[in-house]
Amino acid sequence: MNRSRERTSLWAKAWYKLRRDRIGMISLGVVLLYFVVALGVWLGLWGQGWSQVEGPMWAPPGPKYWLGTNIIGQDIFERALYSTRTAFDVGLVVAVLSTLLGGLMGGLAGYFSNRWADELILWLMGVLDAIPFYLFVAALAYALQGNPYAMHIAMIATFWTTTARLVRGEVIKLKQFEFVEAARAIGLPRRLILFRHILPNTFHILLVQATIVFVGAIKSEVILSFLGLGVTDGVSWGLMIAESTQEVQAGHFSNFVTASSFLFVLVMAFNLFADALQDALDPRKVSA
Amino acid sequence: MSSALLSIRDLVVEFSTERGRVRAIDGVSFDLAPGETLGLVGESGCGKTVTALAVLGLIPSPPGRILSGSIRLEGRELTRLGEREYRHVRGKLISMIFQEPMTALNPVLTIATQMTDVLVRHQGMSRRRARDRAVEMLALVGIPSPEKRIDDYPHQMSGGMRQRVMIAMALSCNPKLLLADEPTTALDVTTQAQVLEEMVRLQERFGTAVILVTHDLGVVAETCRRAVVMYAGRVVEEAPVECLFEQPRHPYTEGLLASIPRIREEKLPELPTIPGSVPDLLHLPPGCRFADRCPRADELCRRREPKLELRCDIAVACHHPNRYAGCRE
Question: What class, spelled out in words, does domain B6-108+153-261+272-313 have in CATH?
Fold first, then answer.
């Protein structure tokens, strides 16, 4: 066991370390459970009855409706399940694309710092950051004429700037390192130096940023849906919370509590998992 | 000197700083024969590393630039090469090993990746063949079970091993010239000796010429045939190593030699040092740059800068050098 472990790859080592992190593994389990739920909805195994009006208004939790029904008699549990899919939809798409975009732009800006490419990217980031987020989303939603991905596009277009700034700073730092000079000294082209030597060293930033953006996207989706700028062709925890504003006043908390709890547990688990993953993946810590 | 592998003439490298322009090296000239080992000696900040980087075309620009002078490798002028052409020189004809083996290897890539990249690029090898060649090179520098260690990450190796890997990588394309920038400074004394030995052995085997940049005169005595002593961006003395150690002609070289800690018959109350420090390159004195720290400086030294004058293998830039007693060669 000992010898085989010594020879295995960085990933295997990271996995070995992660496995011993109890909180990390529990939160990974929770995230995976959510993911399975979302996958099930995608595959049509459950959560399909989210839009059917089948019960009485505000039925209490029970064997028929596990978490009760909402103001128009829809099954709250079904709706919460379906919303998991919506959350992953938004979170994954936004996290992956904005991280890729941010990493690329940040890498270019950092590598060519103080030259025109950097100036251009910095200017673009400044402009995007200067536009108020909700105005930007509203404008895009109008411009894209009810495209269900208007919200995704708006989030990607605004969320990448933070990642890019962090990566830019890190790349400027890494650029001074001797291994970059060594890579230049053995005649590697710039493309290879940036994409093979520098950007992989920002992986921990990208990973943490991706999880922050994932969580941020889910939270923004809730707010946007609440404002009527978000999900248009389904249900989400944000829409559920929006509905519940009338119910809470009437003393029915199930919709609100269900949506908030689903959201809270996922966000919490994802953050804890991201922490554990970062510890496990950091190549400078793996050997310890 | 047309037989020289590398020929540097009147090289001037200038850096723009906030306080003005600084000549980090100012009129450096020397030659290097194929297969020769040359020591480049001096205090920190005297221009040793800048000289090495200039040869590789890696002066950070801006703020630095080569103002004038020429660097010729086998008669080919390097200072006029474009970036793309230069990339085919680096690693293939000229390689460099760095001071810090801890940071000179990329922490997130395996040794295999880093070594094969060079071979694929310069020798046009397939990945598989490059890997075989890399394993071969690792074996040559004395890495035990190289076919296993090649898949290690740098952090899994000790400092000495990493420096061996650097040497293996630098020599893998069989370059004509190896620039070694303080290759042993960051290592333990015992590891230092091993790594140096390895380097010298491989250098002889491949016939690579080496410029050894160091402030450690012991290392120079051990490995080099000739040494160039630099001070404040200028060459002050160039001589065969035996002459340099037996009879330094420039007072600065003399001071450097006297300040080496060593086991002596009786314990000195204090290790001799050279008083003062290297002058600010922004405010250089009009005369000899060493005059302020020199015990022999006089009016002439403060007024006129001495030229580098060659006499029987030894070049020295001083108005009052030690008497020349003739070298044994």
Answer: alpha beta
